[in-house]
Write a structure and sequence with these properties.
Keywords: ATP-binding, Chaperone, Cytoplasm, Nucleotide-binding, Stress response. This protein is of the alpha+beta class. The protein contains 21 helices and 22 strands. It has four domains: about 200 residues, Heat Shock Protein 90; about 140 residues, Ribosomal Protein S5, domain 2, CATH 3.30.230.80; about 90 residues, Rossmann fold (3-Layer(aba) Sandwich); about 120 residues, Heat shock protein 90, C-terminal domain (Four Helix Bundle (Hemerythrin (Met), subunit A)), CATH 1.20.120.790. The strands form five sheets. The chain has a nine-stranded mixed beta sheet, covered by helices on one side. The protein is elongated, with a radius of gyration of 35 Å. The termini are far apart.
Length: about 625
């Protein structure tokens, strides 16, 4: 038997196109070919279970080998094999008509995965790294004869009688000069670990040594010897393929350490297992976030039938859930997945919604069944919960019952609990409930103490997402606003009807304002005289709540760039009822008046961390002289 022919793609230059445009992702050739071999072994096993194959299955496995001297890589299996006619059907006819169509459709493709998936080029990814590819195969069918196929990277192929004596397929790649990096033990092991670590059929890659007991020594202690065994690179039955009732906590933690060997133990996990209306399995872990968004992203691995696809799962997993770690596996997602597919596929959207609900239900159960344990974990999961609430309304609707807010006394409250706690004291004259918060309790301690003296409670809002979370609470909660504790003096944070009266005359007020304006002499600082409690500080520096919040969001990249570019402006609140102000007015030396005003202003700056450099040095020297 010998036959020559032309691969049915109606073009002479398709292989250079494949090599050129898939070059950046060349390593996936091994994933594609090993996956094909695994499919072949699973198919023969399936045929045997259906009674359509009665021969001896043997030990089903796939083997990867390389020969650096001959510059070849071989992928072999003992699956169902192919006849010469099947080679013509499955190998020689690429799933598109010509280079023109290919190039037209390729314009929208973003990477090699997408090209392979769109054009059925799984096997032909071999030509990304090989000058010549050979197939030796023998079909499981009775009376089948072995077949040999060879192609040198042109559209010409040759089929002849093969030499394989056992059922299965052996693909040999003759590696081209540009791809000799793959003729390396470590490089191939790296690729296999990345894509094939959890395939359902054993993958052999060379051999390894392991210690085995070899009797006992004279003292009765066991002896060991080194034995060469097959190097099986994969776990064929990872935990996400098992039922939750088969697993213990130790199994989940051990698997987590396999995935992330340098990470702390996770807080808890969710085992996903659904077969309708889509198929999905997996395990999602809640890591300790440490108030950090970025370094924890892209830690969820996406698999399709235990073949690794990608760790960029944005369209499958909601944005806020990308802070989780773990694996998800769905046969409904094709191996060669493209971004456009993910965005458009209805199953992907269902999976996205299902995972969101599953996570919300898990958190709600934890809160309901173990409030104390939930509170102990809050420092680690609070960022994640708030991020989810800001990102998705559906998640907000579920999480609003278990999200916690924490005050400076380190007490935790649900939103409803906190409303009940502060409503009586922190409702202003217009019926608006005001929550007061700090984003830096140490730096803003003076303001917190002033608020506490008035009976106000202060929340701690210092996570990276809290600027957005605060805005969301104001939108969602009825007649409620939030003010940072240093946005105004304590007497003015919550407007009441019992405002204090000025002890200064209009003339004195004008004079004291002029003294401070001259002493400060900075356009960014606007002096205002207020009638405050005499026990409050003589001078307080604040920034308008709205402006400060917009600038904070701009600094986080929150789309407020206009505000971020505006210069800082502050309000200098002079407490007209403080005894220092009376002392300044009573003084006759303008120099002393200016010095006292500047000292009081600098103290206010110092309390806000706004006094630095030469001005701080000047303040220290002035303080020494006044002692």
């Amino acid at each position: 038997m010998q036959e020559k022919g032309t691969i049915s793609i109606h073009t002479e230059n398709i292989f250079p196109i494949i090599k050129k445009f898939l070059y950046s992702d060349t390593e996936i050739f091994l994933r594609e070919l090993v996956s094909n071999s695994v499919d072949a072994t699973q198919k023969i096993k399936r045929l045997a279970s259906l009674g359509q194959y009665n021969g001896d299955l043997g030990e089903l496995r796939v083997e990867v080998a390389f020969d650096a001297d001959k510059k070849t890589i071989t992928i072999s299996d003992n699956g169902l094999g192919m006849t010469a006619e099947e080679i013509k059907k499955y190998i020689n006819q690429i799933a598109f008509s010509g280079a023109t169509e290919f190039m037209e459709k390729f314009k929208e493709a973003k990477d090699a995965n997408e090209i392979i998936g769109r054009f059925g080029l799984g096997f032909y990814s071999a030509f990304m790294v090989a000058d010549k590819v050979e197939i030796e195969t023998l079909s499981y069918q009775d009376g089948a004869t072995p077949a040999h196929w060879v192609c040198d990277g042109s559209t010409e192929f040759e089929i002849s009688e093969g030499s394989l004596e056992e059922r299965g397929t052996e693909i040999t790649l003759h590696i081209n000069a540009e791809s000799e990096e793959f003729l390396n033990q470590q490089r191939l092991q790296q690729i296999l670990d990345k894509y094939c670590k959890f395939l359902p059929v054993p993958i052999k890659f060379g051999t390894t040594n392991q210690e085995e007991e070899d009797g006992v020594d004279e003292e009765g202690k066991p002896k060991y010897k080194s034995v060469e065994v097959d190097n099986i690179i994969n776990d064929t039955n990872p935990i996400w393929t098992k039922a939750p009732n088969e697993l213990k906590d130790e199994d989940y933690l051990k698997f987590y350490k396999e995935l992330y060997p340098y990470s702390e133990d996770p807080l808890f996990w969710i085992h996903l297992n659904v077969d309708y209306p889509f198929n999905l399995t997996g395990v999602l872990y809640f890591p300790k976030l440490k108030n950090d968004f970025e370094i924890t992203r892209n830690k969820i691995k996406l698999f399709s039938r235990q073949v690794f696809i990608t760790d960029e799962v944005k369209d499958i997993v909601p944005e806020f859930l990308m802070l989780l770690h773990g694996v998800i596996d769905s046969p409904d997602i094709p191996l060669n997945v493209s971004r456009s597919f993910l965005q458009a596929d209805s199953n992907v959207k269902k999976i996205n919604s299902y995972i969101t609900k599953k996570v919300a239900d898990k958190l709600a159960d934890l809160f309901k069944n173990d409030r104390k344990g939930f509170e102990e974990k809050w420092n680690d999961i609070g960022l994640f919960v708030k991020y989810g609430m800001v990102s998705e309304d559906k998640f907000y609707d579920k999480a609003k019952d278990f999200v916690l807010v924490t005050n400076t006394a380190k007490e935790n409250f649900t939103l409803n609990e906190y409303k009940d706690k502060v409503e009586a004291v922190q409702t202003d004259k217009d019926g608006q409930l005001v929550y007061i918060y700090t984003n830096d309790a140490e730096k803003q301690d003076a303001f917190i103490q002033s608020a506490n003296k008035k009976g106000y409670d202060v929340l701690v809002m210092n996570s990276p997402i809290d600027n957005h979370f605060i805005s969301q609470l104001e939108q969602k909660l009825d007649k409620t606003s939030l003010k940072r504790v240093d946005a105004d003096v304590a007497d003015k944070l919550i407007k009441k009807d019992d405002a204090l009266e000025h002890v200064l005359t209009e003339e004195q007020s004008t004079k004291i304002k002029a003294i401070f304006d001259k002493a400060i002499n900075k356009p960014a600082y606007r002096v205002e005289l207020e009638s405050l409690n005499p026990e409050e500080l003589p001078v307080t520096v604040t920034m308008d709540e709205f402006m400060r919040r917009m600038k904070d969001m701009a600094a986080m990249g929150g789309g407020m760039g206009f505000y971020g570019n505006m210069p800082d402006n502050y309000k200098v609140i002079v407490n007209g009822n403080h005894k220092l102000i009376s002392r300044i007015l009573e003084g006759e030396d303008e120099g002393v008046q200016a010095q006292l005003a500047k000292q009081a202003f600098d103290l206010a700056l110092l309390s806000q961390g706004l006094l630095t450099g030469a001005e701080l040095t000047e303040f220290v020297n002035r303080s020494v002289s006044l002692i």
